Amino acid sequence: MTHVDLRPFDDDDADAVFEMMRDPDAVAQAAFTADDPSDRAAFDAWLERHRADDRVSMLVVTDDGGFAGTAAAFTVDGDREVTFWITRNAQGRGVASAALRLLVAREAERPLYARVAADNAASIAVLAKNGFSEIRRQRAYAPARGEEIDELVFALPPTLDGI
Questions:
Q1: Distances in Å between the alpha carbon of 99 and those of 13, 36, 111, 148?
Q2: How far is Cα 98 from Cα 84, in angstroms, rounded to an integer?
Q3: pTM
Q4: Following DSSP, what letter does each residue of 23-65 receive, concatenated?
Q5: Which of 51, 69, 96, 161 is the most exposed place for a label (fewest CB within 10 A)?
Q6: What proportions of the chain, in percent to the nearest 5, are helix, strand and coil?
Q7: pLDDT for 83-142, tens place per residue?
């Protein structure tokens, strides 16, 4: 069993995140990505915007201390959303589920929302394992695929004690 943790994003993480987020298979699976994942200048600008926004909690996922991906929470139109992106070498071992569980534990606001391509079975399974339920299906443009696809919106409701 590996040890999964979240830590603050550091300047030294930028190269690893850029490489992870331009992996062609991962980009196709994620679907809702940058228009051009290989554009480093656009990536750097995106990263700086998010790091400067106090509504964004951007974290690095570690697996036994090594870089394994990212997890983040952010606010869109008043709704708190979460996202995660796990490196290929860390997939299939429960790293994403553990990372999302840790992220959700840090976020007090409920409900929390997440969005995923309808055919991204792995991410859907991670969300379900962490108590998220599908609340809506909609069509949305997916830059990685160059077309509109079905997007699922998931929510994690408040618990009975209000958290």
A1: 17, 27, 18, 29
A2: 11
A3: 0.90
A4: -HHHHHHH-S--S-TT-HHHHHHHHHHHHH-TT-EEEEEEETT
A5: 161
A6: 35, 35, 30
A7: 999 999 999 999 999 999 999 999 999 999 999 999 999 999 999 999 999 999 999 999
